[in-house]
Inverse folding.
């Protein structure tokens, strides 16, 4: 709502500059020429005559309107009031190595995804490799979803729970897929079977 | 240190005028007041509660750039979620006596009516094709290609078109 009326407010705030105190208009400059203590009156009346209330003039310069979707969460201040934001440990294992590993897995999935379409299905070893890479890729993806939506500073306990829950899930799914790969025909052949059924 | 500023006016202000200089230029004094760390922190917490809350995604104009990015994560969640559900179900199947062998699954899927089969295939094929093609786009970005706003929008729409077409093709196989 506020965003709809804001341009109008801004235009009105810039309109009629003669009424504004610090503008270079005639009224303001004449008021400043006779700037004794007793001549403060015309200045104040110029302010009072301004068409818009003060709150509206301030609102016109705000970038976003106040749109409350949810109330703010309880605030927590770590350390003392004047502490700077903590900088994470600059270990490459948390940054660039992890990033490179992610890309290697993702890039490795490209030929393994195309191959079954070209060859019909995959041999057991390649199929197992595809399965393992998809599992790792999924694990990394779920991890980044948790990191994005469960921030540590707000919900440290829930974050820990989700991360360990994901580790457990990936482990169990990995065992399940190992069972499937060893007892059944493999993922690509199984998908082909079901797809053409 | 955190302190409350309290400007004094009127009688209190006049009482501190002692030197002739002060009488020439009226002076305001600020009285500070020490308070315990906890009380100061409480004030800060209360002030922070008055800060504006950042608005939800609804305020942004729908654009292929960020809609495509959101769709990338949604399709990924569908694919990986399904993958995890299947892997876990296969692991616990013996406990409940389920038969999740590929033969059995193919048989029960084959017995479904044609529109349901095509619909199910479409629901799985679109996330697969979109996420695969968009993944290639991401890898190109990682190598530094196609970063201009125009290129991102063009490849974004191309990915949507290609994935809809290819998933329709896969669904009717």
């Amino acid at each position: 709502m506020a965003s709809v009326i804001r341009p109008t407010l801004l235009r009105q705030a810039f309109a009629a500059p003669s009424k504004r105190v610090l503008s270079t208009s005639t009224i303001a400059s004449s008021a400043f020429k006779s700037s004794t203590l007793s001549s403060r009156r015309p200045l104040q009346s110029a302010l009072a005559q301004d068409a818009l209330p003060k709150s509206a003039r301030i609102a016109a310069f705000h970038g976003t309107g106040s749109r409350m979707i949810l109330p703010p969460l309880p605030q927590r201040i770590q350390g003392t009031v004047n502490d700077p934001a903590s900088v994470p440990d600059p270990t490459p294992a948390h940054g660039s190595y992890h990033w490179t590993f992610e890309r290697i897995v993702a890039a490795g999935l490209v030929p393994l995804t195309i191959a079954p379409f070209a060859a019909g299905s995959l041999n057991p070893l390649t199929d197992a490799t595809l399965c393992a890479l998809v599992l790792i890729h999924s694990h990394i993806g779920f991890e980044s979803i948790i990191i994005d939506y469960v921030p540590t500073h707000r919900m440290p306990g829930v974050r820990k729970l989700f991360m360990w829950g994901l580790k457990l899930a990936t482990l169990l799914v990995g065992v399940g897929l190992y069972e499937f790969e060893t007892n059944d025909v493999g993922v690509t052949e199984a998908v082909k079977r079901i797809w053409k059924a | 240190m955190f302190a409350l500023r309290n400007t004094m006016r009127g009688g209190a202000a006049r009482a501190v005028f002692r030197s002739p200089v002060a009488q020439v230029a009226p002076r305001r004094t600020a009285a500070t007041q020490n308070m315990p760390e906890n009380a100061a922190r409480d004030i800060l917490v209360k002030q922070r509660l008055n800060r504006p809350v950042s608005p939800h995604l609804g305020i942004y104009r729908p654009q292929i750039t960020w809609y495509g990015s959101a769709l990338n994560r949604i399709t990924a969640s569908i694919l990986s979620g399904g993958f995890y559900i299947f892997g876990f179900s296969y692991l616990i199947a013996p406990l409940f006596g389920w038969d999740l062998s590929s033969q059995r699954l193919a048989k029960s899927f084959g017995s479904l009516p044609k529109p349901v089969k095509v619909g199910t295939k479409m629901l799985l094929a679109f996330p697969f094709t979109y996420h695969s093609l968009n993944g290639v786009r991401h890898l190109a970005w990682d190598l530094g290609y196609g970063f201009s706003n125009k290129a991102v929008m063009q490849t974004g729409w191309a990915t949507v078109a290609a994935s809809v077409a290819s998933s329709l093709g896969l669904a009717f196989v």
Notes: Residues 1-16 of chain B have pLDDT under 50 and may be disordered. The domain at 63-171 of chain B is CATH 1.20.1300.10 (3 helical TM bundles of succinate and fumarate reductases). The two ends of chain B are 72 Å apart (CA to CA).
